[in-house]
Amino acid sequence: MRRVLSPAARPDDDTAPGRPGRSGRSGRSDDQERERERNQDREHRDGHGARETLRTEFPFELPRGYVDGSGTVHRSGVMRLATARDELIPLRDDRVRENAAYLSVVLIARVVSRIGTVEDIHPGVIEDLFASDLAFLQDFYRRINAEGHTRAAVTCPSCQESFAVDLAGGGRPGES
After folding, report:
1. What is the pLDDT of residue 51?
2. Spatial distance between the Cα atoms of 114 and 137, rounded to a whole number of angstroms
3. Of 98, 89, 133, 125, which is closest to residue 109 (Cα–Cα)?
4. Exposed, middle or buried, 144 (CB in 10 Å: 0-12/13-18/19+)?
5. Res 118: pLDDT
6. Helix (H), strand (E) at residue 61
7. Is pLDDT at 10 greater than 50 in this prediction?
């Protein structure tokens, strides 16, 4: 059992007369023990020793792809995390005021930074996407901004095995 002394009863200096340094059962001084605990807390906070960084950009593969003016199909792209401004500014857009469904088009255009080699992403580009691609981007937006990841739980139709897939992809469906 450890006895706790009030601050007045114990000197702040470990080298006070008559006290050759505090040590507990572990043989460590209190300072060493406190440092060890601080390091453990820091490791726990940082993800067990590895410093964690915030991921702000997420790659994706469109199911069908954006077809540009020359007929080139663009499938891979990048979406960034949305800011509060990204969600507020479209509310002032006249097209959104006239048609609330247009909100997702303007919002997606703000956060998609690239589709294939096309880097000038604006509402007109998003309007020209196939409906399945727009639905994919809306779901992708929701996943990275609300849930913080791009994984989806799925079930194999043949064996009924449940597993997670990463919607950010990189490969084609069915490929390992």
Report:
1. 64
2. 12
3. 125
4. buried
5. 96
6. strand 57-67
7. no
